[in-house]
């Protein structure tokens, strides 16, 4: 699930994921719209729209969070990983790291 208030970013992520693998991503502009989140959801969220505290709350609910950073910083990465994020990735045009992170999480989810 791609969550971002930025419509252009949502479209770009869904397009890249769709071309890289056959993933049908659900798209939301925020956490309140659409169906209830479940522990099988993988949330892809820009760091600018998610604090480490909110990341921790989502992780404690059993959700799998992948944080995308436009300007990655090692200190921020550690904060998000300590908060329970599954991955903290630089926001790039290459979808490979994101696809790899989704694959790792999916493997754990499917056992």
How would you describe this protein?
It is a single chain. Helix 2 (52-60) links the parallel strand 3 and strand 4. It contains 4 helices and 5 strands; from the N terminus they run βαββαβαβα. The protein has a single domain (2-110), classed as Response regulator (Rossmann fold). It has helices at 7-20, 52-60, 74-82, 96-110; strands at residues 2-3, 27-28, 42-46, 64-69, 87-90. The chain has a 3-stranded parallel beta sheet with strand order 3-4-5, sandwiched between helices. A two-stranded parallel ribbon has the order 1-2. It is an alpha/beta fold. 42% of the residues lie in helices and 17% in strands. It starts with a strand and ends with a helix. The mean pLDDT is 87.
Keywords:
42% helix; Rossmann fold; 3-stranded parallel beta sheet; 5 strands; alpha/beta
> How many helix segments?
4
CATH class: Alpha Beta
Number of domains: 1
- Are there runs of 5+ residues with pLDDT below 50, and where? none
Summarize the helices and strands and which ones pair or pack.
Elements: E1 2-3, H1 7-20, E2 27-28, E3 42-46, H2 52-60, E4 64-69, H3 74-82, E5 87-90, H4 96-110
Parallel strand pairs: 1-2, 3-4, 4-5
Quick summary:
Helices cover 42% and strands 17% of the residues. The chain is of the alpha/beta class and 111 residues long.
